[in-house]
Amino acid sequence: MEKKKKPTNYIIPATFFTSLSPAIKQIEKPNLKYTAPTHQPEKIEVTNEVQEKAPVLKNVVTRKSKLTLKSVFDKEKEKKTIAEENYDNHPKDVFSQIKLIEVWKEYHQQLIKKGEQNLASIINSNEPKLGENFAVEFFLPNQLMADKMHRGTPTLLGFLRESLNNYGIIINVTVDKTVTKKFAYTPQEKFDKLKEINPALIKLKDVFKLDL
Q1: Short-list 118, 123, 113, 138, CA closest to 185
Q2: Which of 86, 100, 163, 204 is most buried as measured by Cβ atoms within 10 A of its Cβ?
Q3: How wide is the angle at C-alpha 131 spanned by C-alphas 141 and 182, nearest 5°?
C-alpha cells in the first residue's frame, strides 16, 4: 500500500515549538518587607555667636540704703547743723523752770512712744535746771549715760527750741557722781545699786553663779 502524503497545508501544533524552546525559568520575586523610615529630630546646636541683650530699664530711681556710711555721715552732719546754726535773728521767748520741766516730760513721752527706751530712761533720770542765758543744765551720775545723752542732744535741743519758741537754748550735760538716779539704767547698774544697799548680794551671786 502506498503511503498517503501529508497535505502541504499541514498545521504544526504549538507543542512542537514549545519542546524546541529553552526552558523558561521562573523568576523568583524578592521578599520585600516595608520598613517604616525612622525620623530622628535634628539636633540644634546652640552657640554663643548670637546673644540677646538684656533689656535696659530706663528712668529707674534707685533708693539709697539707710545703712550706708554716707547716710550715717549725713545724719550726723544734720545733727551738728541743728546745734551749730546761727540763730541770732530767731525768737528767744522767756520761759520758766516749770515750763522747761513740762516740755522735757513731753519729749520723754515721745521717746517712749518711739520705742527709744534707753534715751527715755536717761532723760527721766534727773530734772533739768534752767541756768543763765537760757542754758539748760543736766547732771548725770556716770560717763556712760552722758555719752548716750550727747548723741541724743541735737534732737532734744531742736524740740526744746521749737516748743519754747526760744532758739537761744543750749544744753550742758555734766557728769556728777553725787547725783542719785531715780532708777537704774542697765542690769549691771541695777545690781550695783542693790549691792550698795545689801552687800550680801555679791556673795549670793557668786555662790549660785547668777547672771544679771
Answers
A1: 118
A2: 100
A3: 30
Q: Which three cell numbers stand for residue 182?
A: 531715780
As a whole number of angstroms, the distance between CA 151 and CA 101 comes to: 21
Q: Rounded CA gap, 140 and 123, in Å? A: 10
How far is 58 from 37, CA to CA, in rounded Å? 54
Instruction: Determine contact, residues 123/153, Cβ cutoff 8 Å.
Output: no
Cell of residue 155, nine digits: 534732737
Domains (ranges, CATH) in the chain? 90-179 (3.30.300), 182-212 (no CATH)
Q: Cell triple for residue 193?
A: 545699786
Q: How far apart are CA 118 and CA 126, in angstroms?
A: 14
**pTM of the predicted model as reported, rounded to 2 decimal places:** 0.49
- Give the separation between CA 210 and CA 65, rounded to whole angstroms: 42
Q: Give the E-state strand segments of the chain in sequence order.
A: 129-130, 135-140, 170-175
Give 49's DSSP letter: S
